[in-house]
Design goal:
Length: 322
C-alpha cells in the first residue's frame, strides 16, 4: 500500500508484524496465521483463546523499537506486515527499504493508515486479499460500516451548542491527555464530543502532561479514561470534587480487554469504541444502540471469542451499566 512491488508466496500461512496496529489487524482477519505479538494482549486477557493469547512476544519497530531482525528471520514467516503512514517520518521509504533489506528474502508488506478510524476499509480489504481471507474481511467491513454510519448519522443532527465537552484522562493521576489532533482522541470528535484539551501534541507515545488547575478551568462535562487507578480514585480524591463530571458521575473507564476500546493501540480495535463512546456521551440519543449484542458480535467476529452475558456485564460495568 506504500507503492512498492514485492513478490509474495501464493499461500501465506505464517505471519509476523512490526507494529501493534498491524498485529491486531492480522489477528482479527487470520488469527491462526499470526506468529507473535509486539508485547502481549492487555491484562492477561480473559477474552482470547489461550492459543492466541500465549503467542510469543517478538518485539517490533515502532515507538519502543524492540525488534530484532535475527529473531524475525529465525522464525521464518511467509511475510512480515508493517503499518505505513505516509505522513509518519518514522516510516518513510528509506526506512522501509532498509527494513526490507534486513528481512530478505522474506517480503515486507506495507499496510497503509490503520490509525485513521474514518478510513479502515482499504487496509482491511487489502490484508484480506493478501491473506486470502476475503470473506472475513467482508464481515469486518460490514460491521464497521454499520456502527460508523449509525453513529455519525445521529451525530450530524446534534447542534454545536448541545455537544458534550470531554476530557481524556491518561495516567494514574489523570493528568496526561491528548489534543484534538491526536490519533488517540479521534473518537471524541467522531462521536459528537468536544475535546477540551487545548494542548500541544506530544511526540512518540503522546500523553501530554497538564496541571490539575488547567483541568479545573476546562471543567468538562464528561471524563473518559483508560487508567484503572485513576478511575478508582477520582471520586474520592478531594482535588477533583469541584469538577462537573465528578459531581454528575460522568466518568467512564473504557474497556481494554484484550485491546483498548477508546485508545491504544489506535487501530481497528477501536471499531467497538464507536458505539461505546457515542452511548457514553449521548445515552438518550443512542437508545437504539444495543451495546450488549454489539459487544458479543464484535468479539465473535474480530476476536474469535464468544462472550457470555456475564462477560459483557463485566466489560461494560464501568461505563454503561451504572
Amino acid at each position: 500500500m506504500s507503492g512498492r512491488t514485492v513478490v509474495v508466496p501464493l499461500h501465506i500461512n505464517k505471519v509476523l508484524t512490526t507494529h501493534p496496529r498491524a498485529t491486531t489487524l492480522v489477528y482479527m482477519l487470520a488469527p491462526d496465521k499470526l506468529m507473535g505479538w509486539q508485547g502481549s494482549p492487555s491484562n492477561n486477557t480473559k477474552y482470547m483463546l489461550e492459543k492466541y493469547r500465549d503467542l510469543p512476544s517478538v518485539g517490533g519497530w515502532y515507538a519502543t523499537n524492540t525488534g530484532n531482525y535475527e529473531t524475525f528471520l529465525s522464525m521464518n514467516p511467509d511475510a512480515v506486515f508493517e503499518c505505513y503512514l505516509s505522513e509518519d517520518h518514522v516510516n518513510d521509504m528509506d526506512v522501509v527499504i532498509d527494513r526490507q533489506n534486513h528481512l530478505n528474502p522474506i517480503p515486507l508488506i506495507e499496510i497503509n493508515d490503520t490509525s485513521n478510524i474514518r478510513n479502515y476499509t482499504p487496509a482491511i480489504r487489502f490484508l484480506g486479499d493478501v491473506l486470502d481471507e476475503q470473506e472475513n474481511a467482508d464481515a469486518l467491513i460490514d460491521f464497521y460500516n454499520k456502527v460508523y454510519s449509525n453513529v455519525t448519522d445521529v451525530v450530524a443532527t446534534i447542534p454545536q451548542s448541545e455537544k458534550k465537552r470531554v476530557y481524556y484522562a491518561e495516567g494514574p493521576q489523570g493528568l496526561n491527555t491528548e489534543p484534538p489532533s491526536s490519533w488517540h482522541t479521534q473518537l471524541i470528535n467522531i462521536c459528537g464530543g468536544i475535546n477540551v484539551a487545548n494542548v500541544s501534541l506530544q511526540t512518540g507515545e503522546g500523553m501530554t502532561p497538564v496541571s490539575l488547575e488547567q483541568v479545573l478551568l476546562w471543567d468538562p462535562d464528561v471524563i473518559i479514561t483508560d487508567n484503572e487507578v485513576f478511575y478508582k480514585n477520582v471520586y474520592t480524591d478531594p482535588n477533583w470534587q469541584t469538577l462537573k463530571a465528578v459531581k454528575n458521575k460522568e466518568i467512564y473507564l473504557a474497556p481494554s480487554d484484550p485491546f483498548g476500546w477508546f485508545d491504544r493501540p489506535p487501530g481497528i480495535n477501536l471499531i467497538i469504541g464507536i458505539p461505546w463512546t457515542a452511548k457514553v456521551l449521548y445515552p438518550d440519543r443512542f437508545q437504539d444502540l444495543d451495546m450488549q449484542n454489539l459487544t458479543k458480535e464484535f468479539y465473535s467476529k474480530f476476536y474469535h471469542y464468544n462472550l457470555t452475558d456475564e462477560d459483557v456485564t463485566n466489560l461494560l460495568s464501568t461505563s454503561l451499566l451504572k
